[in-house]
Amino acid sequence: MNRLKQKYLKEIIPALKEKFGYTNDLAVPKLLKVTLNVGISAAKRDDKFQALIERTLVRISGQRPILTKAKKAISAFKIRENQVVGAKVTLRRGRMFDFVDKLIGVALPRVRDFRGLSPKSIDKTGNLTIGFKEHLVFGEINPDEVESIHGLEVVLTTNAKNKEEGLELFKLLGFPFQK
Question: Residue 4 — φ and ψ, nearest 5°?
Answer without folding.
Answer: -70, -35
